[in-house]
Amino acid sequence: MKLITKEVLKAKIEMLGFDDIGITDITDIPDQKDSLEEYLKNGYHGDMIWLEKNKDRRSHPSNVWQDAKSVIVVSKNYAPQHNPLNNIQEKLKANISVYARANDYHELMKKSLNNLSIWLQDSYSIDSKFFVDTAPIMEKPIAQIAGVGWQGKHSNLVSRKLGSWFFLGVLLLPIKLEGSAPELDHCGSCSSCMDICPTNAIISPYKLDSRKCISYLTIEYKGHIPVEFRELIGNRIYGCDDCLAVCPWNKFASETRDIRLKAKETLDMPDLSFFLEFDYNLFNKFFESSPIKRIGKDRFLRNVLIAAGNSGSHEISTKVKKFIKHESSIIRATAIWALKKIISKKEFQKLRKIYILEECDPLVICEWS
Fold first, then answer.
1. pLDDT tens, residue by residue, 119-159
2. 95-96 and 236-238 as β-strands: parallel, antiparallel, unpaired?
3. What is the pLDDT of residue 135?
4. Enzyme catalytic residues
5. Spatial CB neighbours of 203, under 8 Å, sequence gap ≥ 6
6. How far is CA 47 from the centre of its chain?
7. Which of 236-268 are b and which e, b meaning 16 or more Cβ less than 10 Å from the residue's Cβ?
8. Rounded distance between C-alpha atoms, residue 123 and residue 157, angstroms
């Protein structure tokens, strides 16, 4: 059988458009069972029940594929041209997380990893399994062992080469490869990511309570966003980049070379009012190739309405009012909250007298009150 070298493999991976690569022997990866159990026991995962369902397999990559002997971690740079922290003050604009302003990275990276997998099979008769956020694998601690970066105090991966702006992919191989040197923690005494978090979701260094995280609340959470977080969300309608954007290691980051990961003009701080005109068909069509599509229109609209309430614009209230009678109780409740913020008390009371008598959902009634 034709043998593959680490150098040939790295060259192929770079040719496929990845920006960094790390390799580790699967026996060098410690079982994450205890740390995962503690995380779940504290409830830091919120409503992400899938973390509980797959916890036994998730603790170690050998539980995903018993034949695996080596793990390859690849990274893909998606750094923006400008620092997204500057977008927070534009209250009438829809602030979308940098990674979601372009094409869905899952599909782009899967395609490249699939090409790599085919090449390994055709050229070297090597089987492989690859994943991009789709398997019960704890990519970040594995990536640190493989030398791609280290987990910062915000719990995300940081790279001396790429800063904070990169995606991860994982490839399992049934062959032994020489491992890369593990990466060390270079955060030092810096606490910028913890200090900037609007909701204090980073409860201590390296510990994130997802239930407070704006990314979790606007993407993963399906319910009524707690009142104490709504104003703090500001104009963020999908995700939050604050803890990534403030990281000093971004001074080594350069804008992504991949045009498919550059922000689309239509998603680069569009008007909030633009999204308040969407129906279900338009939502699905507009976000057809975007990761935003997976949260569905109602959850997305809930986020837009919160941003509208934080806009301070009375003008936008005309478009918000039509959602008072929406079929979703979450959207009705959020629209009422938003109106309370942007119209006069007298105008709000007039609306309350008209619509509260028709309402039967206790949470919506509570918003009227």
1. 999 999 999 999 998 788 999 999 999 999 999 999 999 99
2. parallel
3. 81
4. 133
5. 209, 212
6. 15
7. bbbbbbbbbbbbebbeebeebebeebbbeeebb
8. 33
The whole-model pTM stands at: 0.94
Q: What is the DSSP string of 320-342?
A: HHGGGG-S-HHHHHHHHHHHHHH
In whole angstroms, what is the distance from residue 73 CA to residue 31 CA?
Answer: 17
Reported as a single tens digit per residue, the pLDDT across 222-243 is: 999 999 999 999 999 999 999 9
Q: Which two tokens stand for residue 205?
A: 């260094």
Dihedral angle sign, alpha carbons of residues 213, 215, 220, 221: positive
Contact present, 332 and 364 (Cβ < 8 Å) = yes
Question: 166-199 pLDDT, tens per residue?
Answer: 999 999 999 999 999 999 999 999 999 999 999 9
At residue 162's C-alpha, the angle toward residues 158 and 167, to 5°, is: 75
Read off the pLDDT of each residue in 287-300 and give the average, rounded to a whole number: 95
Mean of pLDDT over the chain: 95
pLDDT score, position 1: 55
Give the domains, in start order, of the chain with CATH numbers. 6-173 (3.40.109), 192-368 (no CATH)
Angstrom distance (rounded) from CA 312 to CA 341: 7
> One-letter amino acid identity for 51?
L
> Is the Cα torsion angle 44, 212, 335, 352 positive or negative in sign?
positive
Question: What six digits make up the tokens of 135?
Answer: 């398997």
Q: Are 147 and 182 in contact (CB under 8 A)?
A: yes
Residues in the chain: 369
Q: How far apart (Å, rounded) are the C-alpha atoms in residues 251 and 308?
A: 33
Return the SS3 of 113.
Answer: helix
In whole angstroms, what is the distance from residue 77 CA to residue 74 CA? 10
